[in-house]
Amino acid sequence: MSDKSFALPSSIAVIPGTEAAQAAYPYYTQFVPEDDQKFWFYNSMHFPEPMHHFDMITAEAAYVAMGAFNTRVHCLPTAKGVDHRIINGRVYIGGVVVTDPDEIAERVAEFQQRAGHYYENWESLYEQWKGKMKALIAEAQALPSPSLPDYEPLETITEGDAVPASHDLLKIYQQQIEGYHRMWHHHFEFLLLGYGAYMTFFGFCKKAFPEISDQAISRMVAGMEAEIFRPDEEVKRLARRAVELGVDHHFTDDMSIDEVLADLDKVSAQGKVWLADLEESRNPWFNVSSGDGFYHYHRSWNDDLSLPFAALPGYIAKVKAGENIERPTAQLIEEREQLVADYRELLDTDEDRATYDQLIELAHRVFPYVEGHKFYCEHWYTNLFFNKIREFGRLLLAHGFFGPDGVEEDVFNLTQYELESAIIDLMLAWGVGAGPRGPAYWPAIIAERKAAIAEWAKHPTPPALGNVPEAIDDPAINMLWGITRENLDSWLDDGTENPNELKGFAACSGVVEGTARVVKSVSEIGRIQQGDILVCQVTNPTWSPLFQKISAAVSDIGGSMSHMAIVAREYNLPAVVGTGLATVKIRDGARIRVDGGKGTVSILEDA
């Protein structure tokens, strides 16, 4: 262990007044004294806001699947799963590493055999995977809405089924939970293998070219086509169509979306054509959430059109001015091929060149999955899942479970286990013919938890807890989350070395000076003005339509292969990720300089 340390988990107090809400999270997610012996970091990449109690299933199901695939299915040689804990609504994680040489050797043999099967058959297996995901989505869509009739229809008796509707409530709910867990198993079937292929190439390059930068290696796999970029491409298509059809004047920064849709439907044939184009884009491509798929209230574009419509005026203006609004994919591919060729010439032996060719070819084949899977899993399926849970919210609301002032969204203040118990309470009451206990039990608890979520959001969150390890060898934690020994040391720095400079990963090169717009939740992205530098805990591919407005981006967390870093490179947007505390140290409105080549952010003038 290092002599440097963040606060120990046992020293983090539950914020006064929120103790009951903290205790309501499952027991296996609570910190215990033994956790002081381990290093933890705040997973603000996936969970940048306090977690509602039901939403914790997004962490649980993900880590159940990730652990099983790392540890038991693919058998990654040095990294198993990750533990997760929650304190004051914030999710912390810690990796489980393999250090015993004999166990590593055993796992290497298993991994090579298993990963080899996927790498050899990647394209056909990926097509099968898409089929599995689409079938899972269709299965979830086909689940009926839960309902309870006053009396069973006569057919229940005459058709010989004789299972009353109350049983269907339990069946539908359990199928929803099972389907969500299954989705995460599909999610991890390929993901770590995609990272693994890139990491192997990365390791080869670091050994062969000791001076090479992480960014140069990552640019060798830029210029990808992946489904997660398609929603933004559809918004651009709709902008072009609006100009072609002569209906572009309807789209302004202060528009009412409902009024625009109504006007287009009645004013002209061209308006109706544009609306037909919109419907074509919406299914399936607007099944993406405004967040990253881990919070029930990050609604999909289909549920709330405000994010894609906010991008239309800017895209339309650029189309009319004759500007190119496409991702610079061709330029990225040309640069990628030149880099690959230039570094290949530096290799001395035919053997090294053959290995290099094999590794980069594999990385190009598998890497699009690293972003593409998100469309099907974190977005399309997860949004559908939350909307199906809302149906239970409506049913419980109708039966008084949330009180006279309740709303269907109150269902997300119950844990997944409490929701099942509330459903059984309703089943009992319906069958017994008496009132359920829930209406007297849940409203006060829900009010308490809502207050706790609001309170937790006001307090700063330590980026890490526990003793800093001498080395952090898990390449996924390095590249995805940006957790390295060097970065942790800079997070621990008290600021005396240079209080006006932050260091992180050089995600995409370019030097930009401008106004910092500090955005701490999805609800704040409307504050972004043209030319601002986005400063956030993390961003995700569905914020891509906003990239036309911003001049650079800075994040608290993320490594060279984080989603934010990948997206920044694909849009050629200067970016620094993994700074640790940018959203704390940089004030909204400050003037800052971002150097995406060096990985530094300088505060030039405080707000």
From TrEMBL:
<dbReference type="GO" id="GO:0016772">
    <property type="term" value="F:transferase activity, transferring phosphorus-containing groups"/>
</dbReference>
<dbReference type="InterPro" id="IPR036637">
    <property type="entry name" value="Phosphohistidine_dom_sf"/>
</dbReference>
<dbReference type="InterPro" id="IPR008279">
    <property type="entry name" value="PEP-util_enz_mobile_dom"/>
</dbReference>
<dbReference type="Pfam" id="PF00391">
    <property type="entry name" value="PEP-utilizers"/>
</dbReference>
<protein>
    <submittedName>
        <fullName>PEP-utilizing protein mobile subunit</fullName>
    </submittedName>
</protein>
<dbReference type="InterPro" id="IPR051549">
    <property type="entry name" value="PEP_Utilizing_Enz"/>
</dbReference>
<feature type="domain" description="PEP-utilising enzyme mobile">
    <location>
        <begin position="528"/>
        <end position="599"/>
    </location>
</feature>
